[in-house]
Amino acid sequence: MDPVRNPYSPGAGRKPAALVGRDDALRAWATALRRAERGRSDQPFVLYGLRGVGKTVLLSEFRRNASKRKWIVAQIEAGSGKTLRELLGEALYEPLADLARPSAGKRLLKALRTALSFKASYDMIGTWSFGFDLSASDGDGGGADTGILDTDVRRLLRDLADAAEEEQVGMAVFVDEAQDLDVTELTTLCTIAHAAAQDEWPLLFAFAGLPSLPRILAEAKSYAERFQYSKIQQIDETVVAEALTIPAVQEDAQWADDAVALVVARSGRYPYFLQQYGQETWNVAAGPVITKHDAELGIAQGNHQLDTGFFRARWDRATPAEQQYLRAMAVDGDAGSSSGEIASRLIRKPKSLGPTRAALINKGLVFAPEHGMVAFTVPGMAAFIARQIHP
Length: 391
Description:
By secondary structure, this protein is α/β, with parallel strands linked by helices. About 50% of the residues lie in helices and about 10% in strands. It has 3 domains: about 25-230, Rossmann fold, CATH 3.40.50; about 240-315, Helicase, Ruva Protein, domain 3 (Orthogonal Bundle); about 315-385, Orthogonal Bundle (Arc Repressor Mutant, subunit A), CATH 1.10.10.10. The strands form 3 sheets. It has a 5-stranded parallel sheet with strand order 2-3-4-1-5, sandwiched between helices. A 3-stranded antiparallel sheet has the order 8-10-9. It has a two-stranded parallel ribbon with strand order 6-7. Helix 6 (about 185-200) links the parallel strand 3 (about 170-175) and strand 4.
């Protein structure tokens, strides 16, 4: 069939043509938006799970829904080598530039001056321009350049939340890969989120990250245990077929039942794999009906693409010593491995493998589901490793 019309889109954070199986989370977020507009606060949302389950897609959908309501929004991704100051400041410039106008209310003008001072806190050379002279405006503002992270970010977000309220909307901050923030940055956001909820600022937070994120948040601040946690997993079996069938119907095609069943089974109901297999199957099918034979070919081609891209990119990030560690884990499949058992397989003392384990966690290749255990962050990684030729 025509590859130009192919409706499937594997890729990090790419919204699928049919976002299915996430209705509960989307309803909860929509309720939180409406509550905030009425002056009622909510605890931060935390989306956590393995890679490839659609956390970033869902987080971005949260952002789009807030933007549709004209909210001030900022979405950042931790772990990019930039500080929280830089990430947050640059993410806010565009939405603030869209709101800036000489006729703005006092609270918005104050917030713009505070944003300018926050910019100066991490970039003394670069300047922002909102198209008019803010220094001549009446009122106060600024002060978000003390160098104290908690003080500066709190002042920035408080003033922006006040401005959002003046505009009869709200403000939302979205943090992807939140486990990669350093302890001080994560603690700062937890503290501010807690203060916002207590004082009912029209400010919402949503975090997304690996399965270790709930533990990391709780270690940063104990009251983070009361945040709203959603474990994002495979798409429910009752609706998973719709991720394939709805996009096809929209392009005047359809799937045979046995073809859908095969792709669903081989994908493990993981969104990323569904999109990969869907894309490859579409490209090999003559159509307009996608057959089981098409699906078999598409799955084979999809596995090749996953092995040379999705899995390979992660495997190649590991050093030879780290790859040995991953091979020892792969014996247990995706369920997780005991650190002691890994050490036994490698004929090493557990403590001697501590730096290797820590490096793999820092690279986002494994996580610690509980004390003394490690597991892959990517479903299917164990099977991929088993397919690799051992040097």
